[in-house]
Design brief:
It is a single chain. The chain is mostly helical and about 400 residues long. The protein has one domain: Up-down Bundle (Growth Hormone, Chain: A), CATH 1.20.1250.20. It is built from 21 helices and no strands. The radius of gyration is 20 Å and the shape is globular.
């Protein structure tokens, strides 16, 4: 048998996942938010913290519904859920265009889009990949999740372009259409081993029950660390354009830095995916969680030059890229794959809630103080605690099989 990791059709699942995640809920809802933030807030006369409430509620709702999505995937298979999820999410994004001229209506429609976004997120794609890979699992996850990095680069630029030729309502309609046109065809290539073989695979697969996972220290240590990291990172990224333009940077220059965030996210996913198969994941995670401290410190010191903004964007993007790979990998190695979808769903729910809280905290801090300094300082402390927490995880409970380690060249 060939040891070439790219030698069979399983990798079509990886490529399909990567393409679909270009228009995942993160790139479409969260990372375009910074582009819409100032234009919509200024046109409507809303405070930034008030408008940020929309993305906060959207992602909190997405997080709360994610475990149910995981349970449906475990029961019905990835592909059936994906076709429905992609379509409803695309409709939800387009529906933001119907927001009335009051903040409650905007928040409600953004919340609806968030609720519908939970199935067009990394969860189903991670489930499909972990069910098909043991050896090269980290690499496969890294390549697939690189789609989020590509989307993080492309979707803000697409939103910026649309705002130049359309009003913001029309731009949201086009974003919804684009989401469906990219993700729905890609979903034809994404299925998990369970749906590809038979329903008995779930019974044979190794792994913990959900209740067992809940009672484990590893589950809560992972959840706390991820919550702290994503709150800090997504809060900083969502307001990066607004922060830098407040300090005098030209809007087109600040927006272009989101390309660096996306490219760094892509690089972070590929590098972390490669290393996860070779380095004990908690140690790798602890190091990666500290990288954004460089970016936070740069912004706290008042940096508004292109070099300072670029450094912050790269640090944020690299760590953001790595953490989704790390979550998917940790769940598979500490809890197995029998109930992977639901267990991952609960962890990713916490991830998604943090993604919504971060931008809201940043916006609220600005509204109350006129700057982002208190939030950035708090985020620095959260990153340090997250790094220490993830290091407390013990040995893997479901390590790669000996044959898989041999395929990687391990002794």
């Amino acid at each position: 048998m060939s040891r070439n990791p790219f030698s069979n059709r399983r990798w079509l699942v990886v490529i399909g996942s990567m393409v679909a995640l270009i228009v995942g809920n993160g790139p479409v809802l969260l990372f375009t938010f910074g582009i819409f933030l100032k234009p919509v807030a200024e046109q409507m006369g809303w405070a930034r913290g008030t408008m940020s409430l929309g993305v906060a509620v959207a992602l909190i709702l997405a997080g709360l519904i994610t475990p149910l999505v995981g349970r449906l995937i475990d029961r019905w298979g990835v592909q059936r859920v994906l076709f429905f999820a992609v379509t409803t999410f695309a409709l939800g994004v387009s529906a933001i265009s119907l927001a009335p001229a009051n903040v409650a209506g905007f928040v409600a429609l953004y919340a609806l889009a968030g609720l519908l976004s939970s199935g067009q997120a990394p969860l189903p794609y991670a489930k499909a990949i972990t069910s098909r890979f043991d050896a090269h699992r980290g690499l496969a996850l890294g390549i697939a999740m690189a789609g989020v990095g590509i989307g993080t680069s492309l979707m803000p630029q697409a939103a910026s372009f649309l705002l130049k030729i359309l009003n913001w309502r029309e731009a949201y309609i086009v974003l919804g259409i684009l989401t469906w046109l990219v993700a729905f065809p890609a979903a034809f290539f994404v299925s998990d081993a369970r749906s590809a073989k038979n329903d008995n695979l779930k019974l044979m697969a190794p792994g913990d029950d959900v209740i067992v996972a809940f009672r484990s220290r590893a589950f809560w240590a992972t959840a706390v660390a991820i919550l702290l990291v994503v709150t800090a990172l997504n809060g900083a990224i969502a307001h990066l354009v607004a922060l830098l333009t407040d300090r005098g940077m030209a809007p087109h220059v600040a927006t272009s830095l989101l390309i660096a965030v996306g490219l760094a996210t892509l690089l972070g996913r590929l590098i972390s995916g490669f290393l996860l198969d070779r380095i004990f994941a908690p140690r790798l995670a602890a190091a990666i969680f500290l990288i954004p401290l460089i970016g936070m410190t740069t912004l706290l010191l008042g940096g508004a030059s292109s070099a300072a903004g670029l450094a912050a964007a790269i640090c944020f993007g690299f760590s953001l890229g790595a953490e989704v790979d790390i979550v998917g990998y940790l769940v598979s190695r500490y809890f197995g794959i029998r109930h992977y979808g639901e267990i991952y769903g609960y962890i990713f729910a916490i991830f998604t809630i943090g993604s919504g809280l971060g931008p809201y905290v940043m916006g609220l801090n600005f509204d109350q103080t006129g700057s982002y300094s208190v939030a950035l300082g708090t985020f620095c402390g959260m990153l340090i605690v997250a790094s220490a927490t993830i290091l407390s995880l013990g040995p893997y409970r479901y390590p790669a099989k000996p044959a898989a380690r041999s395929a990687l060249g391990a002794p």
